[in-house]
Design a protein that fits this description.
Layout: E1 4-8, H1 22-25, H2 32-48, E2 53-55, H3 63-74, E3 82-87, E4 89-91, E5 106-108, H4 112-126, E6 130-138, H5 148-159, E7 163-168, H6 173-180, E8 184-185, E9 188-189, E10 193-197, H7 206-214, E11 218-222, H8 240-252, H9 257-266, E12 273-276, H10 281-287, H11 297-304, H12 310-318
Parallel strand pairs: 1-2, 1-12, 2-3, 3-6, 6-7, 7-10, 10-11, 11-12
Antiparallel strand pairs: 4-5, 8-9
Helix pairs in contact: 6-7, 8-9
C-alpha cells in the first residue's frame, strides 16, 4: 500500500458542507461548544487509529481553532504530528448551514493581502505545529500561479521553514499541477506538495500526479469518496450501477463500499496521503477497513469501468447541496 491516511477537517469545522449526510453526522447540533466536542471526538479516534496528518483551512469555519484546542488539550508535541492548512478562501456563512440567496458560503481571493492576513491567522492559532501551507484551489483562471507578489511571499515562507503546497480542483487539475511544477526559485521547486481530487469516478489527474511525485512532491488525495457519492448514502438511480459494482467487491472482501473506494486511492503508487473526510467516528472506522482490502489487478480493472468524464463528474459535484 503506497499511501497513509490523513484526516481532513472540511466537514468538522463548520455547520454546513456539501458531503451527503453531513447534517446527520453532526446530529444537527451546531452550537460551537457541541461542534468542538464532536470534532475532538473524531480527532481522538483518528489519533488512536494512527493518523498523524491533519488538514484544515481558513475557510473551514473553526477547523483550525478546534484543531489547535485539541492539540493543546492533548499536549501533542509538534514533532509528533503534521498539520497542513490553506489560504485563499474566506468563510462567509456566518455559522449557518444555509446562507441567504446570493450569499456564498466562502469567497475565493488569491491576492497578496489575503495570503498575508490568513497566514497570520493560521500561524497564530497553530503556531509551531503548522508544517504545510497550501494555496486553496489554485486554478489557471485565478492567476495565482502567475502572481509574482504572491509567489515571492510564498518563497519567503518556504525559506522560513514552512512547506508550501497547493490544492487543485475542477476539470483543469492536470494543467494547474503542471504549471506549478515549473515554478522555481534559485532552481528549487517552490511547491513541495500537491493536493488533488482523485477517486474511482474522477481519475483525470493521474498522469500529472505521477509527474508531481516523480519531481519529489508529496501527493495528497482529497475527495476520495467524492463527497459521499461513493458511499451507501448515495441512493441516486444514476449511481445504482456503480454502487452494485462497489457492493459486490465489498462483499467479496468482507468490507464496505467506502473502504473499497478508499483502497483504490491508497493503492496508487504515487500517492503519499489519502484524506478521510469522515465527520463521525463510525464513518472513520469504516474508512479504515480500506487497509484490510486485498488489493489486486482484478479489483482495479472492475473499478476502471466506473470512471466518468471530468465534465460529468464536476457538473454533478456542483449540484451537491449544502447541508
Amino acid at each position: 500500500m503506497a499511501a497513509k491516511f490523513g484526516l481532513g477537517l472540511a466537514a468538522l469545522g463548520r455547520p454546513g458542507y456539501i458531503n451527503l449526510g453531513h447534517a446527520e453526522d453532526l446530529g444537527a447540533n451546531y452550537a460551537i461548544g457541541a461542534m468542538r466536542k464532536h470534532a475532538h471526538g473524531v480527532l481522538d479516534a483518528a489519533w488512536e487509529l494512527g493518523i498523524r496528518y491533519f488538514d484544515a483551512a481558513r475557510s473551514y469555519g473553526r477547523s483550525e481553532e478546534f484543531l489547535a484546542n485539541w492539540i493543546d488539550e492533548r499536549q501533542i508535541p509538534a514533532s509528533d504530528v503534521e498539520i497542513g492548512s490553506k489560504w485563499g478562501y474566506t468563510y462567509t456563512a456566518a455559522w449557518k448551514v444555509q446562507t441567504p440567496e446570493g450569499v456564498a458560503h466562502e469567497i475565493k481571493r488569491h491576492e497578496l493581502k489575503v495570503l498575508q492576513s490568513q497566514f497570520q491567522s493560521s500561524s497564530t492559532l497553530l503556531n509551531q505545529h503548522l508544517d504545510l501551507y497550501q494555496i486553496h484551489s489554485a486554478t489557471l483562471e485565478s492567476g495565482v500561479l502567475e502572481n509574482e507578489e504572491v509567489l515571492l511571499c510564498l518563497e519567503g515562507l518556504r525559506k522560513s521553514g514552512i512547506r508550501i503546497g497547493l490544492t487543485v480542483s475542477g476539470i483543469e487539475q492536470s494543467e494547474t499541477i503542471d504549471r506549478a511544477l515549473s515554478i522555481r526559485f534559485q532552481d528549487k521547486l517552490l511547491f513541495s506538495s500537491v493536493q488533488a481530487t482523485w477517486n474511482v469516478l474522477e481519475t483525470s489527474a493521474t498522469e500529472s500526479l505521477k509527474r508531481a511525485s516523480a519531481a519529489g512532491l508529496s501527493v495528497i488525495i482529497k475527495e476520495a469518496l467524492a463527497n459521499g457519492r461513493l458511499t451507501t448514502r448515495n441512493d441516486s438511480p444514476t449511481f445504482a450501477a456503480c454502487r452494485a459494482v462497489l457492493e459486490g467487491i465489498a462483499k467479496e472482501n468482507d468490507s464496505t463500499v467506502d473502504a473499497i473506494s478508499l483502497a483504490a486511492a491508497l493503492n496508487q503508487e504515487w500517492a503519499t496521503t489519502v484524506l478521510s473526510g469522515a465527520a463521525s467516528v463510525d464513518h472513520l472506522r469504516s474508512n479504515f477497513k480500506a487497509l484490510a482490502v486485498n488489493w489486486n489487478q482484478g479489483i482495479e480493472s472492475r473499478l476502471a469501468e466506473l470512471v466518468q468524464t471530468p465534465d460529468e463528474y464536476w457538473n454533478q459535484r456542483a449540484e451537491l447541496a449544502w447541508n
